[in-house]
Amino acid sequence: MNEPVPGTFRDPGLPLAARIADLLTRLTLEEKLGLLHQYQAAVPRLGLGSFRTGTEALHGLAWLGPATVFPQAVGLASTWDPGLVREVGAATGDEVVAFHRKDPAGAGLNVWAPVVNPLRDPRWGRNEEGYSEDPWLTGVMGTAFARGLRGDHRVLRTAPTLKHFLAYNNETDRCVTSSNLPPRVLYEYELAAFRPAIESGAAVSLMPSYNLVNGRPAMLSPLINDVVRGWTGDDLLVVSDAYAPANLTGLQDYYGDPAAAYAAAVRAGLDSFTQDDDRPADTLGHLRAALERGLLGEDDVDTAVRHALSVRFRLGEFDPATPYDDITEEVVNRPEHQALARRAATRSFVLLKNEGLLPLGRPAKVAVIGQLADTLMEDWYSGTLPYAVTARAGLSERCATEFCEGVDRVALHAPGGPVTAAEDFGGGPLVVRQGAEPKATWFDLFDWGGGAYALRAAANGRYVSVGDDGVLVNDQPGPNGWEVRQTFRLDERPRGALALRHISTGRHVELAPDGTLRLADDPDAAAVLTLEPVLSGAQAAAGLAAGADVAVVIVGDHPLVNGRETEDRADLALPPAQEALVRAVHAANPATVLVISSGYPFAVTSAQEELPAVLWSAHGGQEYGHALADVLFGNADPAGRLTQTWYRSARELPDLFDYDIIATDSTYMYYRGTPLYPFGHGESYARFEYSGLELSAGTVAPGDVLTVRLTVANTGSRPGEEVVQLYTRQRRSRVKQPLRRLRGFERVRLVPGESRVVTLELKVADLAFWDVTRGRFVVEDAPHKVLVGRSSRDIRLSGRFTVTGERIPPRDPYTSPMGAADNDEYDGVVLCDAARVTGDAVRGAAPGAWIAFRDVDFGAGAAGCALTVTSTEGGVLTLRLDDPLFGPVAGALSVAPARDRYDLVSVACPLAGAAGVHDLYVVFENEGVTVSELVFTEAAVPAEGGARGTRGIPAAEGRAGHGAPSAQWPQGPVRKAARGVPRGAAEAAR
C-alpha cells in the first residue's frame, strides 16, 4: 500500500488551488504524463494510488453486478420532478461508492453520467439516454441527477461527467459525420443543455462526443476552452470517449500522425485519454513524442494534469476522511432504494389517452399479453437487475390474470428436412435432419421492428445466436451484449422462400455439408428456407382476450435491437407483428389497454384513433410491474408528461443529419404540424381547470423578473397531479423565433374541489437569443405572449407583455469582418472548419448555393469586398443584392485552385451599386468553394479639409490578420496562412 507523504497537498484546510499546485511541483514530467490516461498511474514515492475515470451510472450503477435499476433517463425526465431525479442520483451515487469501497480498481468515483444531449430527433439510437428535446428541461434534469451524484458536501460523493459534447444525435456513421451548427442553434439549443449543470457545480467533468462539429472533431472543439470552461471557476476535467483519440488519425483522418493529433487534443482541452483500455503505453508514447517535437509544452501538460488532479482532490482522496467513508455494500439495493425505484417508475408513466377505461375497477380477469409482458429489459447502460417485477407479475398481485406472449411460432424447412434445435438447456448447433420431435423444430419468432427478428427455440427456451465459429446455436437468454449476435433479417426469396441474414455480421446463413447452419462467406451460398406457421400469436392472444374483462397489451422495443448505441431507427412505426397483435386483441375485446414500454416515441396513430386507453413509459427498471399496476388500478395518478414530441410519421421529420432545428422547423419549438402527442402531454384521472391569469407587469426590462400567477382547480372526482407549464412566444423579431418555448413549470397535487394559486417566475434575461450580427445574446425590444397550460399545445390561459430591450440595427459591414458562418439564412451550403484549431467557414455544396446577410447598411456605398476563401478545384462567387437569383450583381470574383482546403487566401473584388440597406447574398456558382469571412471597404468620400479616406480598412496597412487588401485592389489572390495551427505543428498540418 502506498504510504502518504506529508505535504501541503494533504492539508484539507488549505485552498484547493494551493494543494494542487503543491502536488504539481512534486511530480516529474513522466509522472505527470501518467495522469493523462483513463488509467492514471500510481506514484508510489508520493503515496498516490492509481485512479481510473469512467464508471457508468446513467440510471443506476451499470456493468459491475446487481445494483438498483431505476427507469431509463428519458423516463426519469418524464416525471417532471427534479427533486425525485436528484434522489435517484443520490441513491446511484451511494451505490457507486459502495462498489468502490469493495473494489476501488473496478468501480471508480468519476461517473460518466448524465447524458444531456437534447433529443432533437426521436430516431436517434440513444434516445433513451437523454432527457428531453427541450434544452432548458434537459438542463434542469441533468443538473438534478448530477447534483444527486455529487452530493451537497464540499467533498464530492462522486464526480459526474456530462455526455456527450457536442451536437451528438445520430449513430449512423457517428465518428465521421459532421453536425453542422449555425450560431443560433449552437448557443440557443446545444450549449444551453450543457451549461446549467456545469455552471451550478453539479457536474465537474465533460466528455466530448465522437462526431465532428462544423467539420472539426468535437474532441478538438475550441468551445471547450473558450466557452465551457468559462461557465465555472473550478477546474473541469475533460475525458475522451472510448477509443475516440485514435479516430483523429484513423476514421476522421484529421491529423497525419498520433503525436500531432494528441498534442492538438491536449491543447484543445482534453485532459484524459480513454484509449486502449488499461494499456496506456501507446498514448503516453505519443504524448512524449509531441513534447520532443515541440508540439506540446510542459505547461500544456501541467494544465491538463491540474484538471485531472482537481477531481481527485475534490473526491477527498488526499483528505484524512470523507463524509462517505461509512457507506458499505449494505446500501446496494436496500429497501429504501427499492421503494425509490418503484416511486420513480410509477411517476414516470404517461397516460397518452383515456376514454374512461382507466383506472381499472375490480376486473375478475385480466388478459396480460405481449412479448414484453413477462420480461424486463436491460439496456446497454443499465445495471444488472437484482430482481424483476414484470407487468404480468405486478398485475397478478392485484387480480386473476391469464398470460399470452402473442408471438408467432414457426418451423423452418431446408432442403433435406426441418431445422432442429438441441433440447439441452445449454443448447447446441442447429442442424437439418429428419425424424426430430415436432417441438425440436419449433421456434418463437420475435419481431423487434426495423426488420430485426430473434428466434427462440421451443426445445429449450433459449435464443438462437451465432458462436465465434459462425455456427448457429440455441444457447442465449435473449439479445445481449455490445455486439448483438442473436438477431436476423428474413430476406425474401422467390416462391415464398427466405434466407436468414445475420444482422451483426451482415452474412447469410448456409447449410454446411454436415447439416449444421452456419454463416456463409459467399452470399450466393445462403440456404433457401421455407417458413411454416405453427401457431399464430395474434390469434392465440385474441382468443385469450375475448374471455377476459380487460386486455392489457404490452408492446415496445428491445433496448439492444433496432435503435441503440451504434444504430439509429429508420422509422417510428411499431414492429409489424406487434401492431397486428394490438389490432387482433382490440377486435376481440374492446376493453383493451395499450401499454408501450420503450426508450423512444412510436407513431401509434391507429392506437390513438381506435383504442380506449394508451399508456407509455420508458423501460422502468426492477419495479416496473408494481408501478404499472399502481397506475392501472388508480393507486397512483399518472404523473408523467412527455418530454418529446410524438410524431405521426417519420415523414414529418427532417433528415437525421440536419441539426438546424430552426431552418427545418424541428422540435416542439418550431414544428408547425399537428403532432400525435405534443411535448408536455399527459392525461390525469382528475380534471383540472385554469383561471385568473395575472402578470406582475405589462412592460418589463431585460433585468426584470416577470411574475405569472394563476389558479388551478381540481374539478374532477379523484385526486390528481397536474404539471402547470409556462411557455412564451416572441411576437415580433428580426429573426425567426420559436412558436413556443418552455420557461418553467410547477407540479401541484389537488384533491377533488381543491384549488391553488400557482406562481411562476420568468427572468426576462432568459428571453435572449443569439444575435449573429454582433456575436452575443440580445433581449430584443418586442411584444411577447405568455402561454400557460397542460402541454405545449393545450394552452389554457394566455397574456401579453412587452419587453423594452434592444433594437438590432442593420449590419455595419465596415467596423469588423463579417463571418460567413454568421449568416442569417442559407441554402445548399455546409458549415466547415476554417482551420484545424479554430474558426468556422461555409462551403458551397451545390451550384447556386448561397448565404444571406439581412439588412446590411452599406451607407453611401461600398468600394470593394475581400473574401477569405479556399477551394481545391477553384470556382466563382457572385455577390448579389436582395435576391440570390435575380438581384443585381454587386461584384464577382474567381477563386484559384488551392493546394488544400485550409489554404485560405484573400480575394478582392470591387463592388458596384452596394449603397444603402440591402440583403446581401454570396452565391456559390459551383460547389467546393469555402468562405470564412468578408471584409468591406467604404467608398471614399470628401472629408473636412478636402481629405479623402475610407471606413473599415486603413489604406496603408490593411486589416492585420484578416488578409484584407490594401487601398489598391490586387490583381490576384493574396496568400494567407491558415490560422490556428498550434505552435510547432506547421509540419503536421495538411
TrEMBL record:
Keywords: Hydrolase, Signal. Belongs to the glycosyl hydrolase 3 family. One of its GO terms (molecular function) is hydrolase activity. It comes from the Bacteria. It comes from Sphaerisporangium aureirubrum. The keyword Signal applies. Gene3D superfamilies: 2.60.120.380, Galactose-binding domain-like, Glycoside hydrolase family 3 C-terminal domain, Glycoside hydrolase, family 3, N-terminal domain, Immunoglobulins. The keyword Transmembrane does not apply. This is Glycoside hydrolase family 3 C-terminal domain-containing protein. Residues 945-990 are annotated as: Disordered. Residues 814-937 form the CBM6 domain. Pfam families: CBM_6 (PF03422), Fn3-like (PF14310), Glyco_hydro_3 (PF00933), Glyco_hydro_3_C (PF01915).
